[in-house]
Structures are given as structure tokens and as C-alpha cells.
């Protein structure tokens, strides 16, 4: 408890305020530009230094869009993203510095590394990009990091195809961490891996997080994985944050009806209960005027379709956007 | 209920890769499915779970070959049948639901065409009107709203969950006795996955189906199936009642697998892992247990002697020298 209080008093390393992103589809055949629904809609959260935030949600809920917005791959239409106290306009002019501090692990370890490069070239690329180091220094760093991620120096001379999925993901982790970033963004880093390998990678990420005092945004559709690694969990639905709470509060005392549906849908072994919620029948309807989850929610009434619920504080660090939370 | 509808005995599937190297996809596996039963096969990628499904329908991709064994479906050995009679069997008596709903439907044809193809393949001559009424009924069963309109739609107009429902409707069209669902919900979201399994559950009781569910998700299999098989390296390592295997796994691999899945119910600082990685089994290194190099219990004997599957408790079969 004391520890979590201390975290709040520190200034956040990353902070998002009312960030919205809209993808404009440049359609070749239709002249009229359609009004698009925002991929993420007024998303705000703070990541304290050395903290870990997990973002969960179904496909298309905007998880990866948040990662892209933080990494300046896409520009938000509104809102402010600050990293280390400076906004993105500041970092746009100092991209090298920014990317040496903010690094990313992609989902697919097969397509995110160049098959024509040796492992040592792949891993040392950030070093040669961001810093001017001589050969000896680079080699020393390489040898350090490869041992840290659980591989050996022999692997440095290999090509990616000689490694399995788990080995490749270790390479992408090494590449992300060699420039000693302070913020790591992991976009579904284990979803392409088998469970026994997933466990190895999760343990590794946890060790490295503590060892290198990283802050982390961890994106996943798997709540159990997020539960293992993160101290704050954000649940998203259709581009909105619907619930945000410290890990234990969210897992044990979730209040939003979508979170409830999500938790009840997860296979838990033979103990599982009957599903109490209305389930996805028909296409996903989208309610633009009111709560985005209203068409699927069992508790939805008139007000849910009319008024968009605000993300309100309902407990210690517990935020929930629902008119009728549990 | 108790008659076995499908029995696989000592199945062996090999992939000759070169003159010297042969990959053993399945070695001496036996499993059975009783009438009206849901059987789960769980394992990691490359363990031979999909290959088991393909062997039943005999659609093992070349150069794979079924080397030996028996596949008895309603007491008849499928491996002795000719290709013509197998074609009539597939879809009519045994159907397959594939993993990826995106690529299992042809994007340039309507939903009606896909159903029509089943009728054509099985030489069933009906008028278009009759076909349509049957298909609409089928789409209603799987819970697709406005089936009359949906019939004329193309696959891209459906969401992932709806597409998987269409595929289930296709698989059910000719009222098969056995359905093999090969990772039916891996590409879908958890809430959609739940909806699909609720659907399969109701269909199963109303149509008296037998079902084989293949998945890498141990929790899902334990929840949805009556009996389960744990596969590793082309072998069945453990089998038994789903609940008892889940609650008290006996084989070191099943135990390791259970422990390496992060849980929602409790929080740990470090996950217990199965050390090392899965290595493919080639014919030359076939002595010993294929899990021995990752096993914590393994000793010299495990690398030398190939363990046989044996009944440890009633209804619980384990392939391990160390478990008695």
C-alpha cells in the first residue's frame, strides 16, 4: 500500500490526456469522405515511472492504436501525449533521443526481424543508430544483453531462421533493450508463442523490468498474462477506456458490465459457471450517441443509449465508465 | 452413449523429408470417441494434434503418409476405403471445422454457393427452393439473424464470429455423426469464443453429436470436454476424464503445462516453466521418451526406454516411466 502511494506522488513518465485517433480511409473509389468512428476516443492515463500498465480488450478495441500513438507512428487528432514531461511536438524534433528512450516489442517474432541479417547486426542496430560507440563498446554491450535475455554468445553469429519462435522473441527483446530505454511498449509479445515458451518469455520480461527499472505499457488480449505482469489494468471497448484499476482491485472487484462479460468468457477449467450475459448475437452494433457497450449489455436502458458515461472515480484508483456499474 | 463411434489404434504418420531424415508426426497413438461424447486434444504446436484430425479424414498433406494403424469409424476401417467412398464420408458423416474462419470461405462466392457446393459434392439433387429452405433452417440453428438476407451475402460482410457460425452450419448441413473442430476459436475473441462454445453445446445435445475439439488452451478443453488427451511430440502423454486430468495431472508434461499458464485466481511472482523447447522427433532419435530432454524427473532410463501408455488409475492413462 505504501509503495503504491509513493508511485502516485512521482510525476508520471508517460501521460495521455484525451487522446483521440481517427483513421481516415483514403478510398480510391468513393469521392465522399465518410465520417469515421475514432479508433481511440478521449483516452487518458498516466504511467508512473517503473510502473506497468496492462491494456486488455478484444480485437479492434484500439489497443494497438494507443501503442502507435505513443510511438508517434500515427498522430492523434486531439489530445496531448507527454513523455518525460515533454509533449510530442518537442520529441518530434528529437526523434533519435525519443526512440532511444522508448522502445517496442512487436507481436510476431517472425516478421519483425530481418531474415537476411545476423543476430548481432539486428541487436546492435539501435546502438549504431542512436549512439556513436566504437566496435569494442558495441561488442561488450552485445555480449551483455544476449546473456541477459537467456541466449549465448554463439547465437550472435546466427541468422534468425536458426532460432525458434521463443528464441526470436528473445532477440526482439534484446534489440528493444540494448539502447537502455526507460519506457518499453509490448504489443502482444507472447500471443504467437506456445504456453510453455510464453511462460519463459513472461518470466524474462519480468526479471528485466526489475533489473533495468523499466516502465512498461503491456498490450494483450489475455487477462491472465496481464495479471501476471502488470500493476494497473485498463480495459478497453471500442476505443474507450471502460474500466481502470490496480490489478488486484480489477481482478477481484470489477464493476463494469463489459469487464464482467470478459471475465466470465475466459475458460477457467471445469469449474466455470453458466454464462449470465447476453452474448454476441448478430453483428457488433455500435452505439455512437451513448455507451459503446449498450447494444450488448444486459443492464442497458434508455439512458445508456442516450448519454455517454464518463470515466468516473468509484474507489481508490478505480475508474469506471458505466451508468449502472455493479 | 457408450458405443465407441471412432477408434484410432496405433496410428503412425511420417513425413519423409529426405532419403535419410523422416519426421515422425504421430507415433503409435490410440484414442477413441464414444457416441455423444466431447473429446479434447490439447498440446502445443507441432505435437501432432491437427495431424490426428487430418489422419481421420485422410487429408494428411503430402509428403505425409499414414504408415500403420487402424482408424475404425462405426467399426469400419477408414484406411482400407477407396478415395471415392471417403469423399462421400467427408462432410456427410465426419465434418471438419477449421481454425481460421477467414480463409475457410471463398471470398468471391456467396454463402449460398458454399452450401450448394456441399450438395453438389455429395450428388444430392434438390431444387433451389428446397436447398434454400434447408440452408435457412441451418443458419437459424447456428444463430445467424435474418438468414434469408444473409444467404446472398459474401464472406467479407460477416464478422469473424459470424463466419465461424457459417462454417459450423456448413459442417452440420448433412447431419454428420462426428465433428472435428480444429482450433475452432483461436482466431476469435474470448467473448465470441464463449458464444461459439455455448452454441456447440446446445447443438450437441439436440443433435446427439460426437465432437473432437482440438486446442492449445488447456483451460478451454478442460471446461468444454468430457474426456481429454494431452499430446506431446506426436504421442498421447496422458488421457482421462477432463476434470480429473485438469485437477490432478499425473504426467510431468501436463503438470508443467498447467503450471506455466498464468492464472486469474492467484498472483505469482514467477511462473514455473518447462525448461528448453520442443524439438521435432526424427526417426533416428526415436529411442526413449520424447519429453525426456525437458523433463525434471528424467534419468538415464528415460533416454533409453520408450515408455508405453498404461492405466495408472481407473480411466487415467499415462505414458511415463516415473509415474506408477
Structure, explained:
The complex is a heterodimer of chains A (326) and B (324). Helices cover 34% and strands 21% of the residues of chain A. Chain A is globular. In chain A, helix 7 (165-177) runs parallel beside helix 8. The model of chain A is unreliable at 1-8 (pLDDT under 50). Chain A has an eight-stranded mixed β-sheet with strand order 6-7-8-3-9-10-12-11, sandwiched between helices. Chain A has a four-stranded antiparallel β-sheet with strand order 2-1-4-5. The two termini of chain A are 25 Å apart. Chain A is of the alpha/beta class. Chain A has helices spanning 2-9, 63-70, 88-92, 95-101, 119-130, 135-148, 165-177, 195-211, 223-229, 247-252, 257-265, 302-306, and strands spanning 12-21, 40-48, 52-56, 78-83, 86-87, 102-105, 183-187, 215-220, 232-237, 240-246, 312-315, 318-320. Chain B has a domain at 4-84 and 216-318: P-loop containing nucleotide triphosphate hydrolases (Rossmann fold, 3-Layer(aba) Sandwich). In chain B, strand 4 (65-73) and strand 5 form a beta hairpin. Helix content of chain B is 32%, strand content 24%. Chain B has an eight-stranded mixed β-sheet with strand order 6-7-8-3-9-10-12-11, with helices on both faces. Chain B has helices spanning 49-57, 83-89, 111-121, 128-141, 147-150, 160-172, 190-207, 218-224, 242-247, 252-260, 300-304; strands spanning 4-16, 22-34, 38-42, 65-73, 76-77, 94-97, 178-182, 210-215, 227-232, 235-241, 310-313, 316-318. In chain B, helix 4 crosses helix 6. The chains are: A alpha/beta (326), B alpha/beta (324).
What order do the helices and strands come in, and which of them pair?
The complex is a heterodimer of chains A (326) and B (324).
Chain A lengths: L1 H8 L2 E10 L18 E9 L3 E5 L6 H8 L7 E6 L2 E2 H5 L2 H7 E4 L13 H12 L4 H14 L16 H13 L5 E5 L7 H17 L3 E6 L2 H7 L2 E6 L2 E7 H6 L4 H9 L36 H5 L5 E4 L2 E3 L6
Parallel strand pairs in A: 3-8, 3-9, 6-7, 7-8
Antiparallel strand pairs in A: 1-2, 1-4, 4-5, 9-10, 10-12, 11-12
Helix pairs in contact in A: 5-6, 5-7, 7-8
Chain B lengths: L3 E13 L5 E13 L3 E5 L6 H9 L7 E9 L2 E2 L5 H7 L4 E4 L13 H11 L6 H14 L5 H4 L9 H13 L5 E5 L7 H18 L2 E6 L2 H7 L2 E6 L2 E7 H6 L4 H9 L39 H5 L5 E4 L2 E3 L6
Parallel strand pairs in B: 3-8, 3-9, 6-7, 7-8
Antiparallel strand pairs in B: 1-2, 1-4, 4-5, 9-10, 10-12, 11-12
Helix pairs in contact in B: 4-6
Amino acid at each position: 500500500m505504501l509503495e503504491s502511494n509513493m508511485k502516485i506522488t512521482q510525476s508520471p513518465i508517460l501521460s495521455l490526456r484525451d487522446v483521440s485517433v481517427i483513421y481516415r480511409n483514403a478510398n480510391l473509389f468513393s469521392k465522399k469522405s465518410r465520417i469515421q468512428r475514432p479508433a481511440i476516443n478521449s483516452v487518458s492515463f498516466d504511467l508512473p515511472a517503473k510502473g506497468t500498465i496492462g491494456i486488455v480488450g478484444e480485437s479492434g478495441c484500439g489497443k494497438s492504436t494507443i501503442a502507435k500513438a505513443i510511438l508517434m507512428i500515427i498522430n492523434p487528432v486531439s489530445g496531448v501525449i507527454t513523455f518525460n514531461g515533454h509533449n510530442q511536438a518537442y520529441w518530434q524534433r528529437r526523434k533519435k533521443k525519443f526512440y532511444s528512450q522508448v522502445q517496442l516489442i512487436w507481436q510476431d517474432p517472425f516478421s519483425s526481424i530481418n531474415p537476411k541479417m545476423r543476430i548481432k547486426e539486428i541487436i546492435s542496430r539501435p546502438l549504431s543508430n542512436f549512439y556513436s560507440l566504437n566496435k569494442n563498446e558495441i561488442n561488450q554491450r552485445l555480449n551483455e544483453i544476449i546473456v541477459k535475455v537467456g541466449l549465448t554468445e554463439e547465437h550472435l553469429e546466427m541468422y534468425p531462421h536458426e532460432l525458434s519462435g521463443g528464441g526470436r522473441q528473445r532477440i526482439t527483446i534484446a534489440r528493444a533493450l540494448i539502447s537502455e530505454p526507460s519506457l518499453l511498449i509490448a504489443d502482444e509479445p507472447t500471443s504467437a508463442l506456445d504456453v510453455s515458451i510464453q511462460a519463459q518469455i513472461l518470466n524474462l520480461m519480468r526479471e528485466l523490468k526489475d533489473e533495468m527499472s523499466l516502465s512498461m505499457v503491456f498490450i494483450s488480449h489475455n487477462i491472465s498474462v496481464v495479471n501476471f505482469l502488470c500493476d494497473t489494468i485498463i480495459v478497453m471497448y471500442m476505443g474507450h477506456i471502460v474500466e481502470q484499476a490496480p490489478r488486484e482491485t480489477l481482478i477481484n472487484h470489477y464493476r463494469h458490465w463489459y469487464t464482467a462479460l470478459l471475465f466470465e468468457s475466459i475458460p477457467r477449467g471445469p469449474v466455470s459457471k453458466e454464462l449470465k450475459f447476453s452474448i454476441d448475437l448478430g453483428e457488433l452494433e455500435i452505439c455512437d450517441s451513448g455507451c459503446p457497450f449498450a447494444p450488448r449489455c444486459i443492464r442497458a436502458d434508455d439512458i445508456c443509449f442516450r448519454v455517454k458515461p464518463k470515466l468516473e472515480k468509484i474507489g481508490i484508483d478505480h475508474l469506471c465508465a458505466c451508468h449502472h456499474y455493479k | 452413449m457408450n458405443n465407441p463411434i471412432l477408434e484410432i489404434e496405433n496410428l503412425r504418420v511420417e513425413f519423409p523429408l529426405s532419403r535419410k531424415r523422416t519426421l515422425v508426426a504421430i507415433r503409435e497413438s490410440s484414442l477413441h470417441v464414444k457416441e455423444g461424447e466431447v473429446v479434447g486434444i490439447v498440446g502445443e504446436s507441432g505435437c501432432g494434434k491437427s495431424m490426428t484430425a487430418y489422419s481421420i479424414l485422410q487429408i494428411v498433406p503430402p509428403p505425409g503418409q499414414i504408415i500403420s494403424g487402424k482408424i475404425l469409424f462405426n467399426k469400419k476401417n477408414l484406411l482400407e476405403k477407396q478415395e471415392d467412398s471417403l469423399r462421400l464420408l467427408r462432410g456427410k458423416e465426419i465434418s471438419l471445422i477449421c481454425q481460421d474462419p477467414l480463409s475457410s470461405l471463398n471470398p468471391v462466392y456467396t454463402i449460398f454457393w458454399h452450401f450448394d457446393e456441399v450438395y453438389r459434392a455429395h450428388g444430392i439433387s434438390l431444387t433451389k427452393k428446397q436447398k434454400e429452405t434447408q440452408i435457412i433452417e441451418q443458419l437459424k440453428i447456428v444463430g445467424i439473424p435474418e438468414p434469408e438476407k444473409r444467404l446472398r451475402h459474401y464472406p467479407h460482410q460477416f464478422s469473424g464470429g459470424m463466419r465461424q457460425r457459417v462454417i459450423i452450419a456448413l459442417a452440420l448441413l448433412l447431419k454428420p455423426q462426428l465433428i472435428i473442430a480444429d482450433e475452432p476459436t483461436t482466431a476469435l475473441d474470448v467473448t465470441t469464443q464463449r458464444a461459439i462454445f455455448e452454441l456447440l453445446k446446445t447443438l450437441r445435445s439436440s443433435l446427439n453429436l460426437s465432437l473432437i475439439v482440438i486446442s492449445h488452451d488447456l483451460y478451454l478443453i478442460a471446461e468444454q470436454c468430457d474426456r481429454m488427451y494431452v499430446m506431446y511430440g506426436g504421442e498421447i502423454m496422458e488421457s482421462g476424464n477432463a476434470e480429473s486430468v485438469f485437477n490432478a495431472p499425473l504426467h510431468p508434461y501436463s503438470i508443467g503445462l498447467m503450471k506455466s499458464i498464468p492464472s486469474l485466481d492467484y498472483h505469482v511472482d514467477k511462473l514455473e516453466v518447462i525448461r528448453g523447447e520442443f524439438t521435432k522427433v526424427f526417426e533416428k532419435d526415436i529411442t526413449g521418451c520424447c519429453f525426456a530432454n525437458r523433463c525434471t524427473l528424467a534419468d538415464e532410463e528415460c533416454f533409453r526406454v520408450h515408455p508405453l501408455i498404461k492405466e495408472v488409475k481407473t480411466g487415467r492413462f499415462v505414458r511415463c516411466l516415473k509415474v506408477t
